[in-house]
Design a protein that fits this description.
By secondary structure, this protein is mainly beta. It is built from 2 helices and 11 strands. About 20% of the residues are buried. Pfam families: YceI.
C-alpha cells in the first residue's frame, strides 16, 4: 500500500512539473519595432514607425500557448518627415488627440509542429476593435549573454484593410486601402 501511495504521489508531482505555469516576459523596447507601409499611387511606398511601445508576453513553450499585449503610442509616429507626421496624427488619419494609443491583444498562438505560425487577436485603432492574424516569419527563444535571461522574439507581419478602423483618408482619390504592418518584437523573461 505504501509503495502504491508513493507511486501516485510521484506521478502527481511529475505531472505538476510537466505542466509548469507560463513564463512572463516584458517587451524590450530597444529590440521591438512597429512599422507600417502603404502604397502611394503605385509610384512609391510610404513608411513610418512608432517610436514608443510597451507590452507583455505570456508564453508556455511546452503547451504551445501564449498571450501578448502590445500598446503603441500613436503620437510617436515617425516617418522622418515632420509635415507627414503631423498629417498622420491629424483627424484625417490616426486622430491622436482623441485616440493616442493603439493596442494589439492576443491569447491564441498557432503552431505548426514546433514552429510558431501565427498569432491571432484583436487590434484596437481609432477607437475601433477588429480581429487580425499576424504571421510569424521567424520566432525563437534564446539565452541572452548580456542579460543572462531568456529572450523570446521574432519578426511578424499582417496586411489589414485600414477602412475597417475608419481610416478612409484618400481612398476616393485612389490611395490603397491595404496597409502592411511589420512588427519586430523581443521580450525578456521576468
Amino acid at each position: 500500500m505504501r509503495s502504491t501511495l508513493f507511486a501516485l504521489a510521484a506521478a502527481s508531482l511529475f505531472a505538476t512539473a510537466a505542466h509548469a505555469a507560463p513564463a512572463q516576459y516584458a517587451i524590450d523596447p530597444t529590440h521591438t519595432f512597429a512599422t507600417f507601409e502603404i502604397d502611394h499611387f503605385g509610384a512609391s511606398t510610404n513608411r513610418a514607425r512608432f517610436d514608443k511601445k510597451q507590452g507583455a508576453v505570456e508564453f508556455d513553450k511546452a503547451a504551445k500557448t501564449g498571450k501578448v499585449e502590445v500598446t503603441l503610442d500613436m503620437t510617436s509616429v515617425n516617418s522622418g518627415t515632420a509635415a507627414f507626421d503631423k498629417h498622420l496624427k491629424s483627424k484625417d488619419i490616426f486622430n491622436t488627440d482623441q485616440y493616442p494609443v493603439s493596442k494589439f491583444v492576443s491569447d491564441k498562438f498557432v503552431f505548426d509542429g514546433d514552429k510558431l505560425k501565427e498569432v491571432t487577436g484583436q487590434l484596437t485603432l481609432n477607437g475601433q476593435t477588429h480581429p487580425i492574424t499576424i504571421k510569424a516569419n521567424k520566432f525563437t527563444c534564446y539565452e541572452s549573454p548580456m542579460l543572462k535571461r531568456e529572450v523570446c522574439g521574432g519578426d511578424f507581419e499582417a496586411t489589414i484593410d485600414r477602412t475597417q478602423w475608419g481610416v478612409n483618408y484618400g481612398v476616393d482619390w485612389g490611395f490603397a486601402k491595404n496597409v502592411r504592418l511589420v512588427l519586430q518584437l523581443e521580450a525578456v523573461k521576468q
